[in-house]
Amino acid sequence: MNDIDHRVLGNKLDLFHQQEEGPGMVFWHPRGWELYRVLEDYIRARMRRAGFREIRTPQLLARSLWEKSGHWEKFGAAMYSFAAAERVPGEQGDAEQGRALCLKPMSCPCHVQVFNQRVRSYRELPVRYSEFGACHRDEPSGSLEGLKRTRAFVQDDAHVFCTEAHIEAEVGRFCSLLRAVYADLGFPSFKVALATRPAMRAGNDQTWDRAEEALANAARAAGLEFDILEGEGAFYGPKLEFHLTDSRERSWQCGTIQLDFVLPDRLDAEFVNERNERERPVMIHHAVLGSMERFIAMLLEHHEGWLPVWLAPEQVVVATISDANAAYAQEVMQALEDASIRALLDSRPERLEKKIVDAREKQVPIFVAVGSRDERGRTISIRLRDGQQSTLALAEGVGHLRLAVLSPLLRATP
Ligand SMILES: [Zn+2]
Fold first, then answer.
1. Of the candidates 310, 37, 31, which has an alpha carbon nearest to the alpha carbon of residue 185?
2. Lateral strand order in the sheet of 316-320
3. 362 CA distance to ligand 1 middle (Å)
4. Taking the complete model, does pTM exceed 0.70, yes or no?
5. 144 alpha carbon to ligand 1 midpoint, in Å?
6. Domains (ranges, CATH) in the chain?
7. How remote is the CA of residue 317 from the centroid of ligand 1, in Å?
8. Which residues are catalytic?
9. For FRET with 374, which of 61, 105, 116, 406 sits at 20 to 30 Å CA-CA?
């Protein structure tokens, strides 16, 4: 493993670990979980802005649902399934005995259940749901690779229920969202591919014609160029794939937009149309990052551990020059925390040079030294990663730092 492998960085930066007792699973440490939650909150806010409502659905469901949705047939081999626990006859709950249950490998059928909970009018469409869906897949042990391939992962999943007439606008909206998110995360360049009808498919040719055209038009309208992957679509609909190029010119498939004419049918989704008739909605599956875990692996490797400042688990190290400045350093820490800046105090009895080296080792992007001169003048000395240094009054310095660490979402005009 080279030193920019995310597993090496994960260990060096104390982000996460994996161990034999949890094969393909992740133990997130405080710094790693901080990063995870900052990324999650960012995506959450982006999705809300794009008109999605977040939901939460179960991880464990009856196998019968997966049989009905078709996933059992297609994904069964990768699904964790078991029988409900044996109980003493007569004990409460024994009706469940032996019932086949599965851990969800994806959230799609669950979103249809939420949609189906009441009669929907065409006036309500499009209905947009998002979820950070905790999924499990029984991947072969040989294919497991740190965070890149795990058995438990979280999909930033989203589904739109709409009519054919909505497809182009909905896909266009999502293409713009993807472009903005990837830029914020430091991936200005990506490739788009349109995967079209495979030989084995559901639905008639007219439906496929319209669906493929709608995807192509929406991508073009969003200013995206794309390649065609002939015959690579799923049997239930065509899709757009977004492949990010990282700093080492490797390509990672992350975002997807997929049209689906089959699942709403299998799971009886319907709405009442203008003519007061029951009609099947189109379902659009969306993901921006794909898997949170895998995306974090990619972020770490792409940035070689130097994450964009707004994502860094700790954005600032505040270091005392001597013990005499401990109280003032605390005051500085408080001011940073009040400004929602993630800061770490280094008050060890070490030389300042050593503290600078250690902060770099942990890849914390901003270093603030607090000495007696700072305390007397109520200033802070800021040192950026590129070596730039400045001494500013405390309030002014905190204001500068706040701007530097601000989430791109707060920076952008709404
Ligand atoms: Zn889905």
1. 310
2. 343-346, 316-320, 366-370, 379-383, 389-393
3. 37
4. yes
5. 23
6. 6-59+104-302 (3.30.930.10), 314-411 (3.40.50.800)
7. 41
8. 108, 137, 155, 157, 159, 239, 285
9. 406
